[in-house]
Known about the structure:
Number of domains: 3
Distance between the termini: 97 Å
Strand content: 5-15%
Number of strands: 4
Helix content: 40-55%
Amino acid sequence: xxxxxxxxxTDCHFFAEPATARQRQYEALRAFFLDGLTSKEVAHxxxxxxxxxxxxCHDFRRGLLxxxxxxxxxxxxxxxxxxxxxxxxxxxxxxxxxxxxxxxxLKLKQQGNFRDLIDMPADVTISDHxxxxxxxxxxxxxxxxxxxxxxxxxxxxxxxxxPLRLAEQAAPSSRVSPFPVRGN
Length: 184
């Protein structure tokens, strides 16, 4: 009998001929305790020996049988990854990000690219004309390389228009001092 098949109420084989051992125990105990049948009648009807049915009654009275109708335990109400992403999406929507911008931001956050960029070893040279960030040779720069900002000056308004130049270091021997050296 499938779970979606309706039960014919006029045909009571479901109760008279239990399909599982647990249902058979339940129906036998119900017939004995509620319907008032003798233990011999119940044992015969549900194919128990008289002694086996008495042991079943003994165990039932002492609470040694597992529950007949197990209650389901609800699973977790939250999904941590989805809940975290939902909070991020809502925050980005409040800042008027488009769906595409949100998708891009979540992917970047998931990959941890910004954190990796901040933690990247580099030498910074500040002069009167520009600010130059030279990333060490072994630094992993896929985002910067894809952006096209390497060796291209980008003016920064709060630095009085002084450009920021991002660069890769050619070789370890050509390290630039982090402090500018000025001539006399």
